[in-house]
Amino acid sequence: MSAPLDIVVDSPIGRRILFVECKATRSSTPRDAANVRRKLIMYTQLPLDAFFLLAVPSKLFLWGRDAALDAVPAFTANAQPVLRDYLGALADQEGGPRGESLGLAIAGWLGDLTSNLRSPDKTDADRMLVDSGLLEKIKGGRVRTDQTL
Questions:
Q1: pTM over 0.90
Q2: In the chain, is it the N or the C terminus that has fewer CB atoms within a 10 Å radius of its CB?
Q3: Domain count of the chain?
Q4: Alpha-carbon Rg for the chain in angstroms
Q5: Cβ neighbours of residue 24 under 8 Å, at least 6 residues apart?
Q6: Residue 53, domain extent
C-alpha cells in the first residue's frame, strides 16, 4: 500500500536517503516514536534500509539505516531550536506548531543544510544529523515535500 510522506530527502544522485514523518502529537517518548515508525513500516511500503526521522513539536527522533522494526530511535534531539529558527513565535504556542507549519519548518531546516545555505551548529538537532552520518549523505541532495511511496 502506498502512503503519503511529509518529506523525502534524496542524495545528490537521486537515491532516497531519508523519509520524514511530522506528527502534531504530545507523545514524545522514544517508545511512542518507535510505535509510530513500526506502524508506518507495517502498513506502508516504507523501506527499512533508509534513515527515518519522526518530528513532533517537542522532539526529533532519528533511526539509522537498517534499524530493526521495533527499534527505538538511535538519536533524539530537542525540536524547539529548529522550530524557533523557522517559525519564530509560532514555535512557542501551546502544544507546539500544528499541521503544515511543523512540516514546513523541518523541510526548511533540512533544505538549508542539504544545500549548504547554513552550516550545522551545536544544536542537538544539527549534531544528530552529523553524528549519524546522515548529513554527509544528503549534502547537495534534494528535499521534497508531500511525496508518495
A1: yes
A2: N
A3: 1
A4: 14
A5: 56, 57, 95, 96, 97, 98, 99, 102
A6: 4-148
